[in-house]
Structure formats: structure tokens, C-alpha cells
Amino acid sequence: MHRATTVDEAVSLRVKYGADAAVYAGGTELLLAMKLGVARWPHLIDVKPIAALRRVESTASAIRIGATVTHWDLERDPIVQRLLPSLAALERNVANVRVRAAGTLVGNIAFAEPHADPPTLLNALGASVLLQGERGARTVAIADFVTGMYQTTLAPDEIVVGVEIPIPGAAVRASYVKFQILERPSVGVAIVGELRDGRFGSAPAVVVGAVDEMPRRVDTAALRGADARDEKTADALADAARRSVEPVADLAGSEEYKRHVVGVFARRALDDLLAQAA
Predict the structure, then answer these.
(1) pTM (predicted TM-score)
(2) Digit-coded pLDDT (tens) for 93-103
(3) Are residues 152 and 16 in the same domain?
(4) Is 197 exposed, middle or buried (CB count within 10 Å of its CB: 0-12, 13-18, 19+)?
């Protein structure tokens, strides 16, 4: 176990040990995988002592969340509650209180566990992942960062230092709803849209997660200008959401069942969006 006290020190350790090292923050996913014997790293780089990664900050256009900020921190943070209430609501329902107290938002994203809540909403909100490596810093849209089940574009010499989320405009609403019967969500649907007099000012961003190997963005181009209160709009959204995914059958249900549930919860997400606008 290597305890880094600065970002540069953590990067140096990543460079030194490469694929033999994993970054350790909350450890709720990492340590479980190691206990189950499905993954093993000779070296763990503990980034919890890095004070700069424990902050939640905002600018005029975005919120920046550090890599060691926990789910428990976010659900109670006044900045998040005021500017991104949909994220605060999501965080209150991640796993259980023990996981939320230890687990971090960035760790959830970096592990790329397919049955997870945050990446779905963050994808719809247009969030980006902030990376630091030997060659400097770079920013990657979360939609491009997660490339598959437990797979990301993180380089062997890089660490994730935070997440940056654009602050939605005054007319924009965001909603995340999920279906869950086991320990992890079976289906999660996020919708972010600008509503003016009940109509979508532009095509809403809709993302379906947990049902597939990674979050999938729904093609909503046909909904630009549509009346969100119209039953035909709800039908079109549900149909587009069902067509966007390739469900993985498991203990939570068959492919056909999960595809049906995706349509149901796409409609519920739209209902929640309308309730917020009202």
C-alpha cells in the first residue's frame, strides 16, 4: 500500500508500477473484486490523503467534484443540492449507507461497473472526467471514457482527479429513475431536457444504464420541439429507449423483460421531468 499525498506523487507511482497498481480511494468495488479473487494488484495507491481531491467546487458554468468525494458527501453538499438536485437525489439512493459513506463518485465511474447509477445521469448531463498523467492533464467526456464492461480509456500512467459537470440552464430539468430488485440497479434511465411551455426546446438527452454492458444514449432527434405532455411523445421515447439497448439476461430478468422495463421507466423519467417543470 502506497499512500500518496499529492497528485504528482500518485502519478509517479502509477508510472512506476503501471498495470501492477490500482488506485484506491473508497475501495467498495476494488476490495470486493480482490476478495472474490476476480482481480488482483500487487500495489495499491491510496489517494485519500490528497486534500485537493476532497473538494466540491463550482464556477459560473460547471461543478467540479474531486476524486475522493464520497456519495455521502455529495448527497448532503449544498452546492450539489442547489445546482444539481437530480444528482443529490440519485446519491441518496446509491447502494446502502455504508457504501455511500466510503465509496466515491469517481471510483464508481473509474471501475466501470455496468450495474451502477451515477454514470447514466452524468452521461445525460454531459459530464467529463478529469485525468492527470505523466504527460499532463486531459479531459474526456464520460460518454467516451467508459468503453465497456469494466473498461475505460484510462492510461496506465494516469489517475482520475475529478469529474466536471455543466450546470444546466434555468429551463433545463434532469431526472433519473431506476428499477432495482437485487443489490444493484437492473435498469436506470436519465433524461435531461429543456422544457418551454411543455415542449422540448431541443432534443432531450436520454441515457439508459444498468441493463447493458455500458450506458447507452437514446436517439431522441425526433423529439425536438415535441409536446412532452402528449402520449405520442411518451410512446416515441419509450420505443426509442427500448431500441437503444442490448439487455444482458441475468438473475434480474430476461432480455425481453428488461427491454420492456426500459420502456416503462423511460416513460416514468419523462413524467418526473414534467412534474419538476410544473
Answers:
(1) 0.96
(2) 999 999 999 99
(3) yes
(4) exposed
